[in-house]
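Reading a protein record of the kind used here takes only a little practice. The integers have meaning only within a learned vocabulary of local backbone shapes. With that in mind, consider the following protein and its fold in token form:
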Amino acid sequence: MLVGTRTRDEADRWAAQWREDPVDGAVEDEVVWWALDLLHGIDLPSGPEGRFLHDDDQVRQWRQDFRRLCQTYPDGEE
């Protein structure tokens, strides 16, 4: 996505599998759940011009927030 390795659709589908059909106990980290919630829907369109609801700048901010949260809550407990 931001580095060109995945499309927004691929990121959304990957996150969706964890959000919609989680394996019992596979994801217990609240920070990871937060990030999955953001990724699931990252490909939502906004307007007819091929724009996305969440632009690249917002996605970069999420990445920074995720990294900060991982350092602040290394065990995933907020």
